[in-house]
Amino acid sequence: MTEIVRFRKRTVAQSAVCTIVMMCLQEKKEIVGEETTVNVVFTNERHCTVSVALTMVYGIPIISLCTELQQKIIHEVEMMTPFIVEQVHLFVQRLVMCPTKDGEQNA
Fold first, then answer.
1. How many beta carbons lie within 10 A of that of residue 40, not counting itself?
2. What is the pLDDT of residues 29-82, one digit of tens each?
């Protein structure tokens, strides 16, 4: 039996929040943006939860960076949109070594 999987398209609100989150992450050189995924779930009209799966550079203080990112994401989303961020979940999915001079990652 074949199962049909339907993917939901992101709403305009979800896309706006995702863009703001990626802007916050882009400022940090410790984050590998190409491997980052963002998911936004709205619990009602104005409240949302943001989940981010990150790849980080090895050797940085993860807890302090994640705390800083959570605060920055909440602040930026609430400043740029009418939405209230209830929670920001950050998942470190992978650590990579610093980029080499060639621009490739040492894994």
1. 22
2. 999 888 899 999 998 889 999 999 999 999 999 999 999 999 999 999 999 999
* Tokens found for residue 97: 């070594």
State pTM to two decimals: 0.81
Helix or strand or coil: residue 73?
helix
Distance CA 47, CA 60 (A): 32
Pairing of strands 37-42, 47-57: antiparallel
State the Cα–Cα distance between residues 31 and 73, nearest whole angstrom. 14
Sheet with 84-96: strands ordered across = 37-42, 47-57, 84-96
CB-based contact 50:102 (threshold 8 Å): no
Q: Which of 2, 11, 34 is nearest to 104 (CA)?
A: 34
For residue 34, how many other CB atoms are within 10 A of its CB? 7
Beta strands in 11-83 (DSSP E): 37-42, 47-57
